[in-house]
Backbone:
């Protein structure tokens, strides 16, 4: 058996990989930056696996070769790729029925639902993340999770409402660089935008609060299924963070324009109460009859028409 990279430009190898994934009930993830194939003596593809950032994805072995240790070879190869990239903390998403297999390969379960499981290669990774979060006592403790790309008056309205109604608000800002504004800049703009709210604590999501943009729904049959699975897995993680910090409420902005966010909010409204967390949905702030939206601001930046959305932005964000 030989293992080698499957290049995006190799259409035949890509078709072989897609065929193997389909036979094993897996859909190729849209977010991949490295793929490999394990080939037998007749150059038939018998196993495959891929990476995106510091995650392993799209792992499959041909049904006729089960139990021969092929997945070990693929995972070992991909972990070497991650090591060369400098990624010592590696994550893996899979079906729950594959848990025992990947735990035998050195991965540890962080959270699971009926359709998905989230693992990492560090036994204490999640605990250390929780221990590093800032804690503050209070009778009413809330949380908000946002991307803030960029931070708008709509975001400010959501945070301000939570700050009025609670003693402590944990504001989790997505840590990864996703979109046109770098994470470090987003953090600075949020800090400036909520500087006058002393009961707001800015926290990092780290790798443990998952966004729909990067959740690998490749083993699900439809897009809505991927959204629901992502939301439930995210909430399984969030419930553990909430228990650690004593969070009783999670505030979210009402969503009508984005199908993904609307579904996500619906899952939160359904699942959070069962986890002991109230889901508080706040109507979106409007200006001149238009809902304030970060996507609208990004479009205006792209079109070099920032003045058209100036009324949607705090001065600190507009100045940037």
Residues:
């Amino acid at each position: 058996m030989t293992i080698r990279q499957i290049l995006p430009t190799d259409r035949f190898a890509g078709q072989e990989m897609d065929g193997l994934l389909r036979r094993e009930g897996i859909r190729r993830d849209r977010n991949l930056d490295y793929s490999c194939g394990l080939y037998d003596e007749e150059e038939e593809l018998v196993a495959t696996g891929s990476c995106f950032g510091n995650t392993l994805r799209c792992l499959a072995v041909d049904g006729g070769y089960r139990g021969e240790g092929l997945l070990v070879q693929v995972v070992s190869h991909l972990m070497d790729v991650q090591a060369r990239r400098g990624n010592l903390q590696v994550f893996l998403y899979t079906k729950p029925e594959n848990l025992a297999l990947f735990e035998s390969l050195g991965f540890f379960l962080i959270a699971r639902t009926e359709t998905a499981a989230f693992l990492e290669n560090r036994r204490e990774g999640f605990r250390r993340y929780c221990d590093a979060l800032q804690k503050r006592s209070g009778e009413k403790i809330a949380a908000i999770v946002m991307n803030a790309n960029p931070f708008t008056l709509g975001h400010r309205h959501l945070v301000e409402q939570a700050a009025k109604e609670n003693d402590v608000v944990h504001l989790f800002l997505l840590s990864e660089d996703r979109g046109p504004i770098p994470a470090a800049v987003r953090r600075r703009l949020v800090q400036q935008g909520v500087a006058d709210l002393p009961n707001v604590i800015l926290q990092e999501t780290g790798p443990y609060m998952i966004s729909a943009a990067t959740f690998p729904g490749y083993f699900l049959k439809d897009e809505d299924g991927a959204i629901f699975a992502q939301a439930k897995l995210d909430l399984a993680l969030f419930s553990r963070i909430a228990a650690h910090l004593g969070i009783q409420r999670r505030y979210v902005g009402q969503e009508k324009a984005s199908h993904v966010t609307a579904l996500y909010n619906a899952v939160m409204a359904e699942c959070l109460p069962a986890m002991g967390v109230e889901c508080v949905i706040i109507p979106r702030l409007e200006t001149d009859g238009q809902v304030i939206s970060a996507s609208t601001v990004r479009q205006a930046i792209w079109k070099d028409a920032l003045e058209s959305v100036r009324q949607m932005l705090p001065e600190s964000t507009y100045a940037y």
